[in-house]
Amino acid sequence: MNISEEQYYELIDRVTHEGDPRLILGPLQVVPSDVPKTWADLLSARDPGPAAFVLWEAMRKRLPRTCRALFERLQRVALLRTDDVPASLLYFFKGKDGLFAYRGRPPLDEEQLGQCRLPPDFSDFHRIHNGWVSFHSEDDGPAPNTDWVPPATAWPDVRWKLRAGQSTPATWTTVFRDDEAFLIAYDTSADPPQPLLCRNDGSVERMLDAWWTIDREVGEFLEELEPATPTLPRTSAPSFEGPPVPEQRTARPAQGEFAPGFLPEGTVHGQSQEIWLEAAISEGARPNSEQRERACCRNALQEWCEAVSTSGRASPGEVLDFFAIAQFLGDSSSAYYIATLPMSVWYDESLGAAQVHVLISVLVGKLELAQAGLENVVGLTFEAGAPPEPADEIIAHLLESILQHNESLFAEWRNKAVRGLAATTGRIPWKIRLAAFDAAAARSGP
Question: Which of 323, 341, 399, 403 is nearest to 367 (CA)?
Fold first, then answer.
């Protein structure tokens, strides 16, 4: 990846306030002796992706998507020097809008890490970089220790919606900020410190795993950027770690209370099902891991049902996905629970809701209602004035073949889903999602 003279000076201009900026593009033939030794291999690498993957080894389980994106999409690195920050690493990526960079500052030393009141896994990260944030916004990544401040420092005008017994925001330490939308902070008055998701409307939720959310935010962004084109052939691909699974909860607030560090139970279950589901998808991509995949699916299903039972709400896509998971697992009781959820819990006017309505109607034996709903699905799919999304087209034909009791047509569109949608599945793979349509086909058969 080449960096133009114009881009070079745009980068320099962003840090002129730090004093005498100098940018040295990698790969470096000789790494200066005052640069952290752990950075040497990355700065000298002709192919920086694998070298970054090695540097970030301690965080692969905590940040699996981010580490994979580094391996696949990192285009180039550079050493940035200023008077205020004598050495920092720039990681360059390429997107449709041009050049994008993250900046990593030098790691903290052991004395600084010893003074850190955050959980130990932050020490693992800050041995790599003391913060890794967007070079342009200084957000959207783990914050440097200079930004470990209460949320009020970033958002002085926000009025926090605290529940009885919740700690004061003055004891919260910000560790991640997504521009102006939300930030992640730790309540350091709790033992151990509790992660909190803080939104700019003043709402606060306890989190199960701060790193999982950081990885989702950063990883999703990096995955949209262009893959790197290595100048040298890569001899082997690394083994990518899956996300960590939720720790077993051993304490809960008393009924009706909001104990310090806790949030409403539905939110905890909701976060937990997302982590288990991502773990299931990761396991499903590995060879000989079907048993672990099914175990993660089972835990995700249980947590989702608990979340819906507590919160009384779900999206149509969630209903379809978790009904499919229940069928995939052969869990008839969970499948029945989902199929009989009141429509007020999940129905809206979307195409996804119309699809689920038809599928559920078939499964509970209301075929006339399903037939009427199919007309709505077909109308929303094919009469929008634009070509339908491939998945929506396939779902419409699957539902149509089910209600026509046309086994050969169902098999044809089922095969198209398997062949054509394997890489565009959304939250779950089609091998799982199709279990819901298989169940409907079996239920409506002659």
Answer: 403
Nearest 5 degrees, angle CA 378-CA 362-CA 347?
65
- CA–CA gap between residue 74 and residue 336 (Å, rounded): 46
Q: On the CB side of 75, how many CA atoms lie within 13 Å of its CA?
A: 16
| Amino acid making up residue 128 | I
Helix (H, G, I), strand (E, B) or coil at 173: strand
Q: What is the pTM of this model?
A: 0.68
Distance between CA atoms of 196 and 95, rounded to whole angstroms?
31
396 within 8 A of 381, measured Cβ to Cβ: yes
- pLDDT at residue 422, rounded to an integer: 54
CB 167 within 8 A of CB 260: yes
Instruction: Domain ranges for the chain, please list them.
Output: 5-223, 267-312, 314-444
Burial of 395: CB neighbours in 10 Å, binned 0-12, 13-18, 19+: buried
pLDDT of 236-250, one tens digit each?
Answer: 556 655 555 544 433
Closest CA to 440 of 404, 392, 415: 404
Per-residue CA distances from 306 to 26, 113, 252, 357 (Å): 51, 39, 14, 22
Select the more confidently predicted residue: 231 or 339: 339
Q: Identity (one letter) of the amino acid at 124?
A: D
For residue 120, what pLDDT is reported? 85
> How would you classify the pairing of strands 22-25 and 194-199?
unpaired
For residue 40, give the amino acid letter: A
Q: How far apart are CA 326 and CA 160, in angstroms?
A: 39
Distance CA 147, CA 173 (A): 9
Q: What is the pLDDT of residues 65-103, one digit of tens each?
A: 899 999 999 999 999 999 999 999 999 999 888 899 999
Q: Which residues, in sequence order, are bridge partners of residue 198?
A: 183, 204
Question: Phi and psi (nearest 5°) for 259?
Answer: -70, 155
